[in-house]
């Protein structure tokens, strides 16, 4: 899969959740860190950088899980460590505030061993936020997919347009 240039209007964008009940919300917003909890995988940079290796690693810590769970959860960690790139757009729909925070990934994957709850992290620079309700219904549905980390594709232009408008109104 070829990646679009960072200047293109069709940038790569990711939606990420802040854990169960928004547990990582403070890390995301205040500490400016995207974060995932650890099911026992440890430092993801030590796993060979391909999906099958991530599936095997996850399956070794959760052998009772179904194949669908192994590929879904193993794939989430692979995406976070290897597919997410510097400059990619990240969307965080906060369940606490019902706002969508829009940022740019500015840090490579790091394993924050001291953060026992959410050790898998990346730095983010937040650019804007707006009420989720201000989006079209179909854009809201896409944001609401029941996954922790996934590509946001169909309604990205709507999000980018909101950011451009917000930046324009600040200059006036």
What would you say about this model in short?
This protein has five helices and seven strands; from the N terminus they run E-H-E-H-H-E-E-E-E-H-E-H.
Features:
alpha+beta; ph1033 like fold; 5 helices; disordered N terminus
**The first-level CATH class name:** Alpha Beta
Proportion of residues in helical segments: 25-40%
Order of helices and strands: EHEHHEEEEHEH
Low-confidence segments: 1-10
Mean pLDDT: 90
Compile the SSE list and pairings.
Blueprint: E1 13-16, H1 25-29, E2 33-36, H2 51-61, H3 67-83, E3 89-93, E4 99-105, E5 110-111, E6 120-131, H4 137-143, E7 149-151, H5 156-171
Parallel strand pairs: 1-3
Antiparallel strand pairs: 1-7, 2-6, 3-4, 4-6, 5-6
Helix pairs in contact: 2-3
Task: Tell me what you see in this structure.
The protein is built from five helices and seven strands, in the order βαβααββββαβα. It has 172 residues and is α+β, with helices and mostly antiparallel strands. The chain has one domain (13-171): ph1033 like fold, CATH 3.10.590. Strands 1, 2, 3, 4, 5, 6 and 7 form a seven-stranded mixed sheet that branches. Helix 2 (51-61) packs across helix 3 (67-83). It has helices spanning 25-29, 51-61, 67-83, 137-143, 156-171; strands at residues 13-16, 33-36, 89-93, 99-105, 110-111, 120-131, 149-151. The radius of gyration is 16 Å and the shape is globular.
């Amino acid at each position: 899969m070829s990646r679009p240039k960072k200047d293109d209007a069709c940038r790569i964008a990711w939606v990420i959740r802040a854990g169960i009940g928004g547990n990582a919300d403070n890390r995301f917003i205040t500490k400016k860190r995207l974060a995932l909890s650890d099911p026992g995988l440890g430092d993801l940079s030590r796993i060979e950088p391909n999906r099958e290796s991530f599936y095997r690693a996850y399956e070794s810590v959760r052998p009772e899980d179904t194949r669908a769970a192994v590929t879904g959860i193993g794939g989430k960690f692979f995406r976070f460590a290897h597919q997410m790139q510097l400059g990619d757009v990240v969307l965080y729909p906060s369940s606490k505030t019902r706002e969508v925070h829009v940022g740019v990934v500015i840090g490579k994957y790091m394993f924050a061993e001291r953060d026992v709850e959410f050790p898998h992290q990346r730095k983010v620079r937040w650019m804007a936020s707006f009420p989720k309700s201000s989006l079209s219904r179909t854009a809201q549905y896409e944001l609401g997919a029941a996954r922790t980390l996934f590509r946001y594709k169909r309604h990205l232009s709507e999000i980018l347009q909101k950011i451009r408008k917000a930046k324009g109104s600040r200059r006036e």
